[in-house]
Design a protein that fits this description.
This protein is 73% helix and 4% strand. The protein is mainly alpha-helical and 259 residues long. It has a three-stranded antiparallel beta sheet, covered by helices on one side. β2 and β3 form a beta hairpin. α4 runs antiparallel to α5.
Amino acid sequence: MTANNQDSQDREIDDLLLRKQRLVDRINQKKGKRHWLFKKMPMKASSLETLSNSTEELIKTFKAANSVVCPKCSHGILMCDNEINRNYPGKVEWWCSANCGFKVFSEPTFKAVREAVKAPAYYIAQERLASMTPEDIEKIIKEHQYKSKLFRTATYGFLFMAIWQLFSQQWFLVIQWLIIMTLAYLFALKWAYRAWQIKSKNIHLKHSPFTGWLFNAPKWFSLNWYDENEEKRMQLQKLVDENEEYANRKESQQGGQGQ
């Protein structure tokens, strides 16, 4: 009996140790998953190499954003001879990098070429819209709205990641995700604004109507109000026309002083 009791106690101890070891293994496994999800994976994503590549891409994006897009083909950017000093007082030739044939003359600065390209860009855009069918115009509007929707969806995803990292106390990643979220939301606004521009035909104006649209449009990410709310549409268009008239008057005054 004594031997049987001893064997029974040994088996119970072994079972207890086995259950304890299994419990420890499960806890360690969960800890390992949390470590990979909250620390290892985010830190790998934010490694020096990844951050370096991301920084390089951001620099390229900002350079492209600072460039002037060709108003004729919309595929290339306007370029001039790089050997010309930016302080050169005279006008130089700018041409399209996509070789569509568009050329314009201005001082060798982005600010100057933006001003020089406004007039031809406006007439090119209006001629292009006049030659398009309503179906083609609506297709472009929907494409812009779709891009805006994609960026808005990405914004929610980036916000979720920021909150996730907040709980894991990864402060650097929280800031990083918030910056990316802000950029995505700005791009969503950009494409929503482009859709309204096509709808209202306020393209390549001398005075950008973005501020007027931002503070006076009933909805940013929908154009249902444009056909339904005529009062608001006319109010916004009146504001755009007044700003454009002011820009033309200011340009005429500057031209008169230059003479």
